[in-house]
């Protein structure tokens, strides 16, 4: 009964337009007020315990690194390199550039919102100028932004690891193959949808035509973007090699971005650094507020044995563990329509991780799948963060994109289902490196 009241009050507050962090908090406070077994002190206790984590310090550092890369022009260099590499050779060339750029930038910032905003501001106007429809450009940009949470580093993987006491390094490595599968799948869908719409655009260069042989141009583009390609190696290598924690790796990412902007490219000024710091502070405050309130929500779920309640209800349908997992993923996918991905992970990561262990799934495989499906909510209306970012850049209503983005999200969901039955695709790299 407590769980039912908790969810009804939470969704009622969301329907009234209350911000998600406060809706989570008020719903939790209502349960504490109604339940005499819950003491008021757990509010402050869990609120501060949720954000009192050294690992979570990695989040503002990765956000800051992404903002610095945008301010220093490194993001534009990534786009230029991706364009030289694939843009001129394929139909729907700029769509491929968009997806490949997101895959590269994912290795720098680890933030899906930073990825989508950076790529969208550069590529959505370019795609519209080249003749692509706005809804197509937004759908490609929004869905490719999800790759930022899979290819390491990943803020969501840091968050999931912190909440479930799993190795962040293993979660990082577990996201590599799924990240590339997401990218490859999106390229296939972009091609199919592009052909159905009659697109046949091959481009010379986003930033302008270049002189000389192709290999020289590719080498110049590679050298220009080389720092962006090196940063992920430093981050992942430091964590996997045991030289750095995720937080220290975030500091390294910031240091690399500052050195590149101040000394190599000389495009960073104190004003730009201040603006990047300001945006980082705002985004970090939002994320930490959601974490703090959602930790209280998650604790109430755990105290009321939510995992066994969920298992018991699903068990009425089937006792097969893959049916269990399929229904859990379906629940997350549906909740993603109305919940922010960060809040959803914080609320359900701990109880769902316990369910995964009960069902006998590898915790890294289970965790990566949970993160992947949760990410799809960032691309589905009405609360899809990445979709809203793209629509605001393209200046089109959300309703215009829904039909187009369904193709891309549907394909990503199929990848999640495939990986559910092939755990080796997720665990191969972590097992190889950590000898699990």
Question: How would you sum up this structure in a few lines?
Answer:
The protein is mostly helical and 436 residues long. The chain has 21 helices and no strands. Helix content is 76%, strand content 0%.
Task: Calculate Rg over CA atoms.
Answer: 22 Å
The proportion of residues forming helix, as a percent range, comes to: over 70%
Biggest sheet, open or closed, and with what strands and sense?
none
Number of helical regions: 21
Question: Would you tell me the overall average pLDDT?
Answer: 84
In quaternary terms, these chains amount to single chain
Instruction: Quote the beta fraction.
Output: under 5%
List the main descriptive attributes of the protein structure presented here:
436 residues; 21 helices
Written account of the structure:
Belongs to the TRAP transporter large permease family. This protein is mostly helical. The chain has one domain. 76% of the residues lie in helices and 0% in strands. It contains 21 helices and no strands. The protein has helices at residues 2-15, 20-34, 41-51, 58-72, 74-87, 93-106, 112-130, 134-145, 155-164, 168-174, 176-196, 214-240, 246-264, 270-303, 306-315, 321-335, 341-359, 363-376, 385-394, 402-421, 424-434. Helix 4 packs parallel to helix 13 and helix 7 (112-130) packs parallel to helix 19. The longest helix is centred in the middle third of the chain and has 34 residues, at 270-303. Mean pLDDT is 84; it is low at 204-209.
